[in-house]
Amino acid sequence: MGLNLRFMRSVSGSRRRTGLQGYLLDPGNVVSMLSVILAGYAAALFVWEAANATILDPYVLGNVLPLPRRFILAAMLALGMLAALAVWLVGTRSLARRRGVDLASMLDRTARLSLLVALLPFLPILAFVEPAGEWTLGEFAFDAALVVAMAGLVLLALWPVRAREGAAIEDDRVTAVIRMPGQGWRAGWGPLVLGLVAGYALFMSLLTVGRHNAFATHAFDLGIYDQGLTTLLRHGYMRSTLFGEQAIIHSGEHFSPIFYLVAPLYAPAQNARTLLVLQSLFLAAGAIPVYLLAQAKLRHTGTALALAAAYLLYPALHGVNNFDFHQIALVTPLLLFSLYFLETGRTGLFLIFLALSAFTKEEVALTCAAIGLYVWFGKRRPGLGAAIVLASLAYFVIVTQVIMPALGGEAKVFRFDDMIAPGTDGFAGVALTLFTNPFYAFIHAFLDPAKLVYLAQLLLPLLFLPLLGFQGWIVAVPALATSLLSSYPPQFSIDTHYAAIIIPPLFFLTVLGLARLRQHRLPLRAFAAAVVVAGLASNYQYGWLFSRQFAGIPQPDEHDRRLAGVVAEVPPGASVSTLSDIVPHLSNRDEIYLFPVVAGADYLLFDSAVDGNFYPLTSRDARSEAIATLIPYITGGEYGLVRSEDGIVLLQRGQEPSRNGEALLAVLSGTWEAETLRTNLPERNQPDAMASAGLARVSTPDMIVPGEESVLTYGPYTALPPGKYQVVFRLRHEGDGAEGIVGTVEVFSNAAGGALAGSDVQTSLFDAPGQYREVVVELETQQPFSDLEFRVLPTGLGTLWVDTIQVIPLEVNGEGKVGF
């Protein structure tokens, strides 16, 4: 048994230099200098706050400050930092000479004590927050955060300074790896971990491919990456036609050289399903470095197995895995392997996997820079750490400021709109807010309820053990800051791919936290069992491994099977324009467009299902908007119908348009489930085996208020062009034998000022108790309507059930005067 030799060399190479110049040149003293800089920053901020007390409220809470005054504040803060350094160096050297003590030790103590100055800017902030009557939860959370921060600064400032001799070895004890005989993959539970990895990969592959087969994957982003890898293999670079009429080079959108290594794995089966399986395999493989790292650091195979299981149960991992395909998912195992090799002293492999991580997506370079800082200060290897920091930052700047703009793209700064200082833009505006308004940044990051839930969902499955990782937290800062400072909700959700980059640091910190507990001789076995229980419970609540939200592997329904049959008729080399959820089934081609972009495509494939995804159209009735966009292609004569089935139409450019009337009628047909429409009654969607989707909307006599209009269904505010239609309401009635009107059905338009057509529903219609009956309303319009509602107004005579409302076009006079 022995300490890693490289670690020992790093400790022996960090001998203290003598004199003020030596102190400043010693990388080990950077933390002391940063403490003094923070104190100078805080003092200058306090002076500014005291002089601007009347505007603190809008400034701290809303980031409101004229740009010239903000620049003055920034200059004051910078001068305060420089002045603090000068006063500290000159004053401490003078004090050390008068007292005859060691200069380096005195610099350490005064630097630590200077943190007390950082309390000053908190005082005006506490003073201006006044509750309006009773304290609100937000006000209390803000004050509580300030109090905890102030107490933490005092604790840090007054914590005893260690003697300089031997400090490096003692500080790094938790992160040093002690190699034990018999440790390794073959020892312990390695084969079982491989079994768990294989089981997870198989389950997630079945789940994600099942979703894809049921048309629940999307153009953004599975279709984009499927087309990108197809074009990479064909042309040598990733090309996409899904962003508009003009093709783009995808490396301008996101810079991901890792795809050149993924392409050979994709090449044998060029299909979106291949990407989903590869992603599941990559993410599952992350359990291996988690197990190896825990085994090496904790020397307890049971705990290592528990952490590997906790990784595979982790809900945020499932969110990444189940949200189409994204290149950032590849970073999870790569970063974990990188951190494992770092902690076990294998520098070459560490650097290889770190570089591969940076190649997954441009912002990962910031996490690589943070790892460099950890290597510098946590592992006491300043040369290697500084090189990683400089290389990572240089890579980030070159990629985001030179390469991506040259390829027609840019960094996605819009996701941080709320953090951009008014009057500025881009990353400079975000940086200006962070520098001049830290309290606003804190509120934005940590007092947003959605972000607090996100943090809890990340930390709860790990029993908050990452909080014990202490110095290792620097590794997590860029990824966590990116999520918490964002104004874009998907970026702080465990159900999207953005969590991929925060998962490795959190499991790394969990291992460091457990190592610290082991140092204090606490029972690892108990903590391991607790983590597994927390992982199982969290998975059941938020995850996908046989959890409460897992309802089985998705299976295509009849409509999906018909849609798949139509998709199969599109020739492999043809260009096509289609809807978002159909795109991934056709995206392994050079030319595919996201409807309503058509760009002269050879084929146009449209699905008019009322519950379809019509993104990027996002109006109140996106379906009608999409149909209105489609109709000119049907009536214009350029495209002819190839196939029409169940509301699905396939049009081919240059095809004889004689059957286009059939296409027009198909897309204007639609069936709405009543339980998806609105109501002004207490909503009661009840199970009903006879209803089409197993649910129906129900009204009972006790729900009807005399003198008030009761509307059991209204909406969906759909659009129809001029023509003749049948609107079919499928109803069921249960009563006590009384006869009369049970309700009224009508087609309603606010634009028309009322009902366009309607009918009273008599009890005599329901001659067979418990059976659904159809009520048909004839509708003829001479002008287009875009706000049509299908209303059911019960009278309270018995119980009324509504299953579906169906629109059947009989004759349509659309653009081009096509009639039937």
In short:
The protein is of the alpha+beta class and 820 residues long.
Architecture overview:
This protein is an alpha+beta fold and 820 residues long. The protein contains 30 helices and 19 strands. The strands form 5 sheets. Strands 10, 11, 12, 14, 17 and 19 form a 6-stranded antiparallel beta sheet that branches. The chain has a 5-stranded mixed beta sheet with strand order 6-5-7-9-8, sandwiched between helices. Strand 15 (741-749) and strand 16 (754-762) form a beta hairpin. The longest helix has 33 residues, at 67-99. It is elongated and about 105 Å long.
Largest sheet: 6 strands, antiparallel
The percent of residues in helical segments reads 40-55%
Stretches with pLDDT under 50, minimum 5 residues? 1-17, 165-182, 814-820
Cα shape = elongated
The average pLDDT is 88
- Whole-angstrom Rg: 32 Å
Number of strand segments: 19
End-to-end separation in angstroms reads 88 Å
Secondary-structure-based class equals alpha+beta
Estimate the strand proportion. 5-15%
Structure annotation, total helices: 30
